[in-house]
Structure formats: structure tokens, C-alpha cells
Amino acid sequence: MATVNITVENDADFYRQFQYATANPDGSAGPPINITGAALEMMLRWNAADDTAVLRLGTDTGEFVLTNPASGLFTLKISQSVLQQLALGTYAHSNIMTLGGLKSRIWSGQITINPGPTR
Q1: Which of 43, 34, 94 is nearest to 66 (CA)?
Q2: In sequence order, what are the residues at sequence separation of 6 or more whose Cβ sits closer than 8 angstroms to the Cβ of residue 81?
Q3: Over the stretch 44-70, which tens digit does the pLDDT of each residue have?
């Protein structure tokens, strides 16, 4: 499982493309994994053990988009308006994929929200 740490400023949208792929023994990216038909969901919590999520992002709500699922490509967008509503600081997060009834962790890590000067 990968660790993905994200740092954003709250004065602009966060938008990135990712590729889900196998890992080679040396840690480099191997062949992509087909995620056709998958659903992605990511929740932010102050602490991973907290009962309440601060934010939920998903394919069903449009923040995750499978751009080329056969090649494992997807995007994540968190709009500036959402980022401005969140308290500054570091949150725990994980990206969970549901495919064929099986839930798999794509990644986990931290997301840090910093103040942006042009907000």
C-alpha cells in the first residue's frame, strides 16, 4: 500500500491525476491496474481513530473521476470553496477502492491544509 501525503493551500483548487499500478521490487511503478467499474472514496479525519469524518470525497460525488480506468488513471479535485471551509492543519486520510464487491486500500497518508495568501 502506498503512502500519499498531500499539501494544499486554501486559495486555489487542488487537482491532480494519479495512476494505480503495481509496484516493482525497486519501488518504481510497474504495470497499471485496470480499475474499470471502480468506486473511490476518501475521508479526512483529524485522527484516523476519530468517529466523525471532517470531509468525504468520492466518485459518487464527483471529486474522484476515472479518466482512463483501463490504464488505472483517475483524478482528484478538491475545490477552493471546500478547502476554505476546513480548519488549517493536518488530517489523516485514506483512499479506498470498491471493485467487484471488494474494498481495497489504494493509499493512506496525511493531507495538510495551509493558508493561501490569495484567499
Answers
A1: 34
A2: none
A3: 999 999 999 999 999 999 999 999 999
